[in-house]
Amino acid sequence: MSTLPTAHLIDGSLYVFRAWHSMPDEFHDADGHPVNAVHGYTRFLCELLEREGPTHLAVAFDASLTTSFRNAIYPAYKANRELPPPDLERQFVLCRAVTEALGIRVMIDHSFEADDLIGSALWGLRAHGFRSVIVSADKDFGQLLGEHDEQWDFARNLRWGPAGVFDRLGVHPVQVADFLALCGDAVDNIPGVPGIGAKTAAALLAHFGSLDELLDRVDEVPFLRLRGAASCAAKLREHAEAARLYRRLTRIALDAPFDGGAETLIRQRSNTALESLCEQLRFGPLTRTRLRTLNGA
């Protein structure tokens, strides 16, 4: 276990969506609006705080599915996803409010996605001697893991470091963005290079090291001991520029706003906002007790 100070960086949008899909539609706030996702997300956040007792943490949220810089360079990015219904949009706002009421920093930006906010925070914190634990199951985060960092799939309670990225994807962290550019990512509507699947992409990167090197030396591909090598080379020549574009989508940005440094990730507890939220959201006695205890009441 590393002795470096640890920051927990949480992919909030993922856990709101999970709560929306998993929690029964039987929770309503004081005005009669559904709040099932808020209740599920709050339980997740309470459990994380109780289990880990993190000293430094932040939760990142996506502002929207359509406003990030990636949509500007590739309009089809995430176009396969349905926009959240109004009831869920409203619950996202409430989940952010619960997070802030617990004194946890919220990160959100209309130009950058949650992944970019987490990546930029991790990068900045690393320069100040911190290791990061990324709380998410999203494979994209593998590209961020340095020697001391971890990714934590909270629902399955699985943790892994850089070596675990290779175990899962067959590539090293520095190659993850290139890997996804080659084989595509259906979740984000990134098609990849036609005919190149995950195994082929991993084999190509194992040989060439990077997407740039692969495209510069594409004439060597037909001579590899690779099934369909000649066809693969032809596809790479035809779609080289597209692959470079896809990498601009799959690479997590490290220049998103992250102001204030590590001290801004220390919880600032205030029970005033929390009590009014408990009333508005009609939290039960157990959840209220957990929240008050976590806030030091």
UniProtKB/TrEMBL annotation:
Keyword Nuclease: yes
Residue intervals of the 5'-3' exonuclease domain: 7-268
Keyword Transcription appears in the UniProt entry: no
Keywords, in A-Z order: DNA-binding, Hydrolase, Nuclease
Gene3D superfamilies named in the record: 5' to 3' exonuclease, C-terminal subdomain, 5'-nuclease
Domain of life: Bacteria
Lineage per the UniProt record: Bacteria, Pseudomonadati, Pseudomonadota, Gammaproteobacteria, Lysobacterales
Encoding gene per record: exo
Name recorded for this polypeptide: Exodeoxyribonuclease IX
Pfam families recorded: 5_3_exonuc (PF01367), 5_3_exonuc_N (PF02739)
Organism: Dyella nitratireducens
InterPro entries given in the database record: 5-3_exonucl_a-hlix_arch_N (IPR020046), 5-3_exonuclease (IPR002421), 5-3_exonuclease_C_sf (IPR036279), DNA_polI_H3TH (IPR020045), FEN (IPR038969), HhH2 (IPR008918), PIN-like_dom_sf (IPR029060)
